[in-house]
Specification:
By secondary structure, the protein is an alpha/beta fold. It is 32% helix and 22% strand. Strand 1 and strand 2 form a beta hairpin.
Length: 274
């Protein structure tokens, strides 16, 4: 056990039938730390995130939040101080950006978002609280100016900001980011990197991402998965210089780049992975 860790994964193994998607994976996330999880397509990154969120129960090993073992379920994440963003945006088309973010703040109000929206008892006080939390989150990600806009009126990059604000609205101590840079242009990538470093001043982040430049510039430490196993861990420079990482990405023939698609090896891919 690592004292003081926000998150600790201890020897987690996940099998899908005869396939091993994660093989005794361990990692720890200290407070105010950005941990990157990288690896070729199908390495087990999404499976690991799904274990952390409770979508998948490991066959062996355990996950500790705040030094305590929990039976993790998706609906209990907010209570554990954990939020997750998706690869897409997942916004409600019929709600404004502000209302979408208010949904993420529901755990901070006694009556909840839907009671506030429907003007049920206790709604006025809760609605004010939810709106304040949501506006603060929108401001944090640089999206306060589009609070009253619908998702369909916004660019993809702005919708990604709204999705991140929704995660922030519950004031989590740990945010799990699943490919936050997908679909962003170079300017938006730079802004995302600055935002991630800013968020780490308050809490911790676990980031799964294919953009290596972003990961190398933002992460405090990186864990590299290959075929469900941790093959390297350390600072970005240590990982970059590790021959095992180069071999995993490039292969023996050296003909594939880190972001290459479709990397396969017979009998090694779990059905729910990237």
């Amino acid at each position: 056990m690592n004292p003081g860790s926000v998150l600790e994964v201890q020897s987690v193994t996940v099998r899908f039938g005869g396939l091993t998607a994660l093989d005794s994976v361990s990692l720890a996330v200290p407070p105010r730390h950005v941990l990157g999880v990288i690896g070729p397509n199908g390495a087990g990154k999404t499976t690991l995130l799904n274990v952390l969120c409770g979508f998948i129960r490991p066959d062996a090993g355990e996950v500790l939040y705040g030094g305590r073992q929990h039976t993790v379920r998706p609906h209990r994440l907010a209570g554990l101080g954990v939020a997750r963003t998706l690869q897409g945006v997942g916004l409600y088309g019929g709600l404004t950006a502000l209302e979408n973010v208010m949904v993420g703040a529901t755990s901070r109000a006694s009556a909840g978002f839907w009671s506030a929206l429907l003007s049920l008892p206790r709604a006025s006080r809760d609605e004010r609280k939810l709106r304040e939390l949501a506006m603060a989150a929108l401001d944090r990600v640089g999206a306060a100016q589009v609070a009253q806009a619908g998702p369909g009126e916004l660019s993809y990059g702005m919708r990604k900001r709204i999705a991140l604000a929704r995660a922030l609205a519950a004031k989590p101590g740990l945010i799990l980011l699943d490919e936050p840079a997908s679909g962003l242009d170079e300017r938006e990538l730079a802004e995302l990197g600055d935002l991630m470093r800013d968020l780490a001043t308050d809490g911790s982040l676990v980031v799964v991402e294919h953009h290596m430049d972003l990961m190398m510039s933002v992460c405090d430490s990186i864990v590299v998965l290959d075929f469900g196993q941790v093959i390297a861990t350390g600072t970005p420079k240590q990982v970059q210089d590790n021959p095992a990482v180069t071999a995993a990405y490039l292969g023996a023939a050296g003909d594939q780049a880190p972001a290459a698609e479709g990397r396969t090896q017979q009998g090694e891919r779990g059905p729910s992975d990237e």
